[in-house]
Amino acid sequence: MKISGSLLSMRNDLENYINKVNECSLVDYIHLDIMDTDFVSNYSYSYEEIKTIVEKSKKPIDVHLMVKDISKYDYLLNVNNIEYITVHFEALDSFNIIDKIREYKKVGISIKPNTDIEKIYDLLVKVDLVLVMSVEPGKGGQQFIENTYERINKLKKETEKRKLNTVISVDGGINESNIKLLDQKKVDIAVIGTYLKKVLSN
Known about the structure:
The protein is α/β, with parallel strands linked by helices. The chain has a single domain (2-201), classed as Aldolase class I (TIM Barrel), CATH 3.20.20. It is built from six helices and eight strands; from the N terminus they run βαβαββαββαβαβα. It has helices spanning 14-23, 47-56, 96-102, 148-161, 178-184, 194-201; strands at 2-6, 29-35, 61-66, 82-88, 106-111, 129-133, 167-171, 189-192. It has an eight-stranded parallel barrel, surrounded by five helices. Helix 4 (148-161) links the parallel strand 6 and strand 7 (167-171). The protein is globular.
């Protein structure tokens, strides 16, 4: 299982933590959470902070757009070290944006905890990654929602049935205990934020 590190809880010392992540062999990706106060209530990074993360990161970047106006972030399509751009199923008004992203990057679809996982099944053939939210998106430090394991199992069965190599990523409330269970479930990527700060501080 790979680790994608979110820096949201480290904004007050961003460059220092980017350097720490760059040197941390446990972290495979930087998870770039972008929020707009519209799709979710919180706001994440300024344009300058996004620019800093993109320019300073030595790890590939895994972008998670928690926004309603996805087209506002088209400039990310041309950033070399971005590997994945993930959009929320709940924010889509058409599937054209998925096709557009896929021309440039690997594309992901994210799904909120209260959205039926079955709703994204017909999109699986169009995407490279599914980001299963294990907390309500928009803020860090929440507790992991236990029925996430069942959702992962359903998703795994569906991708196997369709003979797809879809990357399954999980985001929210991941800590030293449940990360082992996610590994046992053969999750491909675990996104860690609050827990990452603890790891980097040791």
